[in-house]
């Protein structure tokens, strides 16, 4: 009876262009489900999550729900976005908000602002802004930090999940975490990309240089998760890749 009911439900959904998928049994549907399954296979706990480029806390909020025991540390340098982040997650006991930009060096950097704050970045030549031919409307000076130095100063020994979405500056963020990678202190990396190879006049967005860096520290590419495919004019992909440290 249950089988007949399930078959009927599937047919009903298919007629309406829908598909019933259980992310706990199919890879590549939910990165949160995939990370949980992979961590469980190695008896790894998921206690510390970093969200670099947190914006308003959209991804971090989901991570707090999906990783039920994890401390989620969100990095966001833009003051207005950081205020929104604090309002969204500041009252959560497992959330910490850090008003810094992660980078390959510690100090101060120019941070480029756009009308859509999702595009704010340490570079003014990210893949999307170059495609759209958009110029930043202003820039401000923000404090930047290497993640390996920040973890040392804050006595963070392990980062179970490192998510990076910094609009073109992702490789530099990872280069600033090499001290963590060297001691195998990061288990999963989830990072945005737009293409496989670097493109002329574009900063970041290429997956192969990221793969090359992470592979040198023992990471293995697992899967991609596509957010959007733009088909107007030049094709443009917004996607994310999951890497796992080889046990």
Mind explaining what this structure looks like?
- With 247 residues, the chain is α/β, with parallel strands linked by helices.
- It has one domain (41-245): Vaccinia Virus protein VP39 (Rossmann fold), CATH 3.40.50.
- 32% of the residues lie in helices and 27% in strands.
- The protein has helices at residues 2-15, 31-41, 58-66, 79-89, 127-132, 147-154, 170-175, 178-182, 207-215; strands at 48-52, 71-75, 95-98, 101-102, 107-113, 138-145, 159-164, 186-193, 219-230, 236-245.
- Strand 9 and strand 10 (236-245) form a beta hairpin.
- The longest helix is centred in the N-terminal third of the chain and has 14 residues, at 2-15.
- The chain is globular.
- The model has no long low-confidence stretch (mean pLDDT 93).
| Largest pleated sheet | 7 strands, mixed
Report the β-strand fraction as a percent range. Answer: 25-35%
Say which CATH homologous superfamily is assigned: Vaccinia Virus protein VP39
Strand line-up in the sheet with most strands: 3-2-1-7-8-10-9
Structural Rg? 19 Å
Order of helices and strands: HHEHEHEEEHEHEHHEHEE
Question: How many helical elements?
Answer: 9
Uncertain ranges: none
Task: Name a few traits of the molecule.
3-stranded mixed sheet; 247 residues; 9 helices; 7-stranded mixed sheet; alpha/beta; single chain; 32% helix; Rossmann fold
SSE diagram, text form:
Layout: H1 2-15, H2 31-41, E1 48-52, H3 58-66, E2 71-75, H4 79-89, E3 95-98, E4 101-102, E5 107-113, H5 127-132, E6 138-145, H6 147-154, E7 159-164, H7 170-175, H8 178-182, E8 186-193, H9 207-215, E9 219-230, E10 236-245
Parallel strand pairs: 1-2, 1-7, 2-3, 4-6, 7-8
Antiparallel strand pairs: 5-6, 8-10, 9-10
């Amino acid at each position: 009876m249950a089988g007949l009911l399930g078959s009927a439900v599937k047919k009903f959904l298919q007629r309406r262009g829908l598909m019933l998928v259980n992310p706990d049994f199919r890879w590549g549907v939910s990165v949160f489900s995939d990370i949980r399954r992979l961590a469980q296979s190695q008896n790894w706990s998921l206690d510390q999550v970093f969200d670099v480029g947190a914006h308003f806390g959209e991804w971090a909020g989901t991570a707090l729900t999906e990783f039920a025991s994890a401390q989620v540390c969100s990095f966001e340098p833009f003051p207005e976005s950081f205020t929104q982040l604090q309002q969204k997650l500041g009252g959560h006991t497992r959330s910490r908000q850090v008003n810094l930009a992660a980078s390959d060096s510690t100090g101060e950097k120019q941070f480029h602002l756009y009308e859509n704050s999702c595009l704010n970045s340490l570079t003014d030549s990210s893949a999307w802004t170059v495609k759209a031919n958009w110029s930043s409307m202003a820039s401000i000076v923000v404090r930047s930090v290497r993640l390996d130095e920040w973890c040392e100063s804050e006595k963070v020994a392990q980062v179970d999940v490192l998510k990076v979405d910094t609009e073109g500056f992702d490789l530099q963020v990872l280069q600033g975490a090499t001290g963590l990678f060297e001691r195998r202190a990061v288990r999963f990396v989830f990072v945005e990309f737009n293409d496989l190879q670097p493109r002329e006049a574009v900063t970041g967005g290429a997956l192969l240089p990221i793969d090359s860096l992470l592979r040198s520290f023992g990471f293995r590419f697992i899967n991609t998760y596509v957010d959007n495919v733009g088909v107007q004019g030049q094709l443009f992909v917004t996607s994310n890749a999951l890497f796992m440290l080889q046990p």
